[in-house]
């Protein structure tokens, strides 16, 4: 498999990246793009299946943009994910870890997510055959975008990603909207009422629902919210947003609480994490716990250390390790996330953390190190693009004895580790599968300063 989750074949001297194939399949392909040394293709017909191929369990598989590895048995998924981490480190980073720990698989391979965003559309996606048939009649949709197409939405009957009553909430919203003539969003002309449904939950079974409307119509919004309130006692936080802007992000929008609190709370080792509509929290909480435990174990804390937590987000890792450290300093660019981090520290009575809202590239300087102290341990958990080269250089120059690099993208992690390898040795790695049935993989790497 390539990093993007496509199978690799070699045809007439070219490398072919094939969507929808499992290693070991014999397939006929359709070529979509062809260059001098490579091509992109998809499976047209399956001639002979690989022994790793299984039947998908979801009726929407193949059309929906999620869960693209459902046709691959779970042990094989883990095998290919682990190998993709090693391949990235060796091919891109030119490094090989001293120790490779076996990937931690997800106990739950279904209903493992605690957040889903459902998109609405005035016309549901249908196949070409359905569209061209005499019986075709456009119907609205509430579901996910079709694979590779962000203007069309597949109407979902059932989804296996989030626990009940997520499916029932989505169907309730759609049925109420259809029955009462509420308009669904027109993704081409950017108008319409029902736009996005955001559903979040915690492990206690409490749900937060956020309705996003493309126009202000209280006469539609309030009865819809009442319908949810009356049918789902699990909803402890019911909110709404009026968004007339072009893109779907909510971070610059006002969130209005209709019923209940404006947050739900997740618990981990006795710590309470308050999650609001705009908060980031790992979407697979069981595996997030494993990820945080690995990070803490790799840090080897005795209680005397000053720890820097870079790209701290809402401070979940910083707070999780705080009781094992002398002090933890968290840095994050998103100001709302830092507000959440400080609130969560206060909520848990943790007073040995400091959080700074700043651009990492500008704040992580020799002056910052001299003001706040040279770290004994640096934990870094950057976004998919990895760290800016200037940030990597500052880390190298500060001479911190131990670095724990948490990554959701093995390719960018490998690139950064190559830069760090001038002064640091890659001691061990621990892949963690946060997203079963996808090609995505998290990896935790421990680096130690050479010649300490």
Provide a descriptive summary of the structure in words.
The protein has 452 residues and is an alpha/beta fold. The chain has three domains: 1-53, Nucleic acid-binding proteins (OB fold (Dihydrolipoamide Acetyltransferase, E2P)); 80-108 and 284-449, Rossmann fold (3-Layer(aba) Sandwich), CATH 3.40.50; 115-268, Beta Barrel (OB fold (Dihydrolipoamide Acetyltransferase, E2P)), CATH 2.40.50. Helix content is 26%, strand content 30%. It has helices at 74-91, 128-132, 166-179, 218-231, 285-299, 316-321, 335-347, 360-363, 366-372, 389-398, 410-420, and strands spanning 7-11, 14-19, 26-34, 38-48, 99-100, 115-121, 141-146, 149-155, 194-201, 207-213, 235-242, 256-260, 263-268, 271-276, 306-310, 327-332, 353-357, 377-380, 402-407, 424-432, 442-449. It has an eight-stranded mixed beta sheet, with helices on both faces. The protein has a seven-stranded mixed beta sheet with strand order 8-7-6-9-10-11-12. It is globular and about 75 Å long. The two termini are 38 Å apart.
Give the arrangement of secondary structure elements.
Elements lengths: L6 E5 L2 E6 L6 E9 L3 E11 L25 H18 L7 E2 L14 E7 L6 H5 L8 E6 L2 E7 L10 H14 L14 E8 L5 E7 L4 H14 L3 E8 L13 E5 L2 E6 L2 E6 L8 H15 L6 E5 L5 H6 L5 E6 L2 H13 L5 E5 L2 H4 L2 H7 L4 E4 L8 H10 L3 E6 L2 H11 L3 E9 L9 E8 L3
Parallel strand pairs: 2-4, 5-20, 10-11, 15-16, 15-18, 16-17, 18-19
Antiparallel strand pairs: 1-2, 3-4, 6-7, 6-9, 7-8, 9-10, 11-12, 13-14, 19-21, 20-21
Helix pairs in contact: 1-11
């Amino acid at each position: 498999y390539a990093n993007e989750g496509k199978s690799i074949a070699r045809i007439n001297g070219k490398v072919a990246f094939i969507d929808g194939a499992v290693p070991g399949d014999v397939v006929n392909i359709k070529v979509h793009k062809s260059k001098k040394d490579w091509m992109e293709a998809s499976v047209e017909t399956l001639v002979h299946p690989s022994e790793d191929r299984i039947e998908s369990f979801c009726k929407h598989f193949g059309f929906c943009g999620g869960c693209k590895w459902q046709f691959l048995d779970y042990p094989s998924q883990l095998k290919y994910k682990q190998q993709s981490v090693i391949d990235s480190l060796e091919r891109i980073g030119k490094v090989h870890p001293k120790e490779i720990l076996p990937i931690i698989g997800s106990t739950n391979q279904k209903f493992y997510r605690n957040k889903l965003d459902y998109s609405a559309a005035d016309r549901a996606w249908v196949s070409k055959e359905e569209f061209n048939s005499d019986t075709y009649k456009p119907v609205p949709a509430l579901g996910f975008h079709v694979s590779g197409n962000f203007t069309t939405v597949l109407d979902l009957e059932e989804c296996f990603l989030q626990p009940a009553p997520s499916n029932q909430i989505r169907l309730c919203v759609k049925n109420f909207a259809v029955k009462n003539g509420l308009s669904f969003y027109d993704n081409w002309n950017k108008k319409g009422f029902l736009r996005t449904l955001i559903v979040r939950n915690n492990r206690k079974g409490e749900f937060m629902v956020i309705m996003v409307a493309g126009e202000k119509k209280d006469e539609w919004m309030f009865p819809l919210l009442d319908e949810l309130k009356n049918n789902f006692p699990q909803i402890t936080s019911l909110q709404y947003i009026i968004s007339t802007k072009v893109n779907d992000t909510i971070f610059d929008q006002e969130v209005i609480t209709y019923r209940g609190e404006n947050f739900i709370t997740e618990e981990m080792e006795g710590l309470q994490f308050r999650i609001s509509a705009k908060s980031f929290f790992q979407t697979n909480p069981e595996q997030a716990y494993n990820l945080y435990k690995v990070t803490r174990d790799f840090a080897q804390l005795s209680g005397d250390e000053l720890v820097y937590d870079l790209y701290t987000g809402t401070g979940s890792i910083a707070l999780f390790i705080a009781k094992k450290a002398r002090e933890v300093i968290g840095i994050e660019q998103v100001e709302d996330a830092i507000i959440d981090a400080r609130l969560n520290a206060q909520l848990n009575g943790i007073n040995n953390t400091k959080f700074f809202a700043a651009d990492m590239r500008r704040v992580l300087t020799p002056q910052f190190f001299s003001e706040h102290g040279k770290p004994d341990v640096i934990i870094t958990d950057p976004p998919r693009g990895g760290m800016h080269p200037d940030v990597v250089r500052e880390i190298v120059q500060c001479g911190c004895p131990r670095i724990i690099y948490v990554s959701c993208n093995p390719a960018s992690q490998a690139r950064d580790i190559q830069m760090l390898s001038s002064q640091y040795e890659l001691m061990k790695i621990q892949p963690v599968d946060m997203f079963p049935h996808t090609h995505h993989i998290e990896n935790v790497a421990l680096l130690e300063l050479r010649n300490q």
